[in-house]
Structure formats: C-alpha cells, structure tokens
Amino acid sequence: MITVLFFAELQEQAGKPQLELELGETTVRELKERLESTLKITGLNRTMTAVNEEYALDSDAVKTGDTVAFIPPVSGG
Amino acid sequence: MAEELFTVTEAPIPVEDLVKKVERPEAGAITTFIGTVREWTKGKRTEYLEYQAYVPMAVKKLAEIGDEIAEKWPDVKTAITHRIGRLEISDIAVVIAVSSPHRKAAYEANEYAIERIKQIVPIWKKEHWEDGETWIGDQLETTSYPKGKPNIEEERKR
Questions:
Q1: Cβ within 8 Å of B, A 33-72
Q2: What are the pLDDT digits (tens) for B34-45?
C-alpha cells in the first residue's frame, strides 16, 4: 500500500488530504499520471514530490509502504 | 531535556523563548527575525492567513537549514519556530534566532535561514482576502520552481 498526501491547493482539488493505493512498484512520474487521470487533478507535473519526507525526482521509485507527498510551491515565512 | 531548536506549532510563538534557546556564553550577538502577517499586499487587503504544513517533513527541513548554517557559519547556533493554523494581522508566523560570537555571522545566517525556508520547507500560506482566497506559492519567483524541478539534484548535493 502506498500512502499519498495532498497539501494546499492540491488538497482542495483532490477533495481530501490523503488516500491509500494498492500498487506494485512504480515511479513518481507514473503515480502522478495515474492520479491526474483518476482524481481529475491538474498541475501535478508542476509540483515537487517527497517520498518518505525527502524530495524526490519523477524518475525515483515508489514501492509499497512508502508515503508520497505532493508539495505545491511552498510559501512559508 | 534537550530543547527542540526547530519546531512547528499551532500556538503563538513567544520570541523570548527562541532567544533563550540560542543564548550561550560564547555568543556576543543574537539576531532575531520575526515574520508577521501583513495586511496589505500590492493593494490587496488580507483579512487573515491560514498556514498549513507537512509537519514531520517541515521540522526535518528546518533542522536541515540549521545544519547548512552550521556548515557555512561554524560558530553560530540557530533556532526556528514556524506557526501554522489561522493567523490574524500582525500575528507572528515565524521566528528565527541566531547567536554567534560576532554580529556579522548572526545577521547573515539569519537572512539565509528565511530565504531557505521559502525554498525548501513544506509550509503553505492561504490568503483570505476581502474578496476571496488563494493558496500562495512561489514567493521567490525562482525560475526552477514553476517548472516543477526545483533543483532536487542540487539539493541532494548540499
């Protein structure tokens, strides 16, 4: 199971802060494409991604047990 | 008990607490940065702000900024607290305290910390304007961010 987290604008688009997916090994890029088509959210290709709380590249692997967070441009401070 | 130098909280931030965290005999200077909620931005009036964070990662990234600072300015000590939730005009959103033997490093490291917060710490601000609301992103208007490839390779080298 992969846990997916949404924040800020993406959370509003997705209509929920998180979801769980039963998936085999995949990549960040594939996960983004899948979510864009199933959840009808846009802009994932422009957000950063964190896998297990570390920034990841689109080509990085995602496997069961991982937490994947989509991080829109940050605006703290 | 070890004091937490890097925290995210829903409670108001007492500035003095951060100063205390970095106070030490070796220090000859302590700088504080206090980020507050601004009412007017480019002619638009803010009623209040809402901050959201990916808390565990935000704490980790704040600590990473502390590590970066320790590498660049070896004699400084840094503490950062960011507040989340609903904040009213003039409320304190972030406090950064840096102590160092001499003032220059304390000023420089403090400025470095706020710049890095705006780049790598997963915290978002939602503006509630008089006439609507918007999640704010890309405050630094860097070239990398809108492309969605925010220098992760660079970040990994740090």
A1: 45-48, 50, 53, 55-57, 69, 71-72
A2: 999 999 998 999
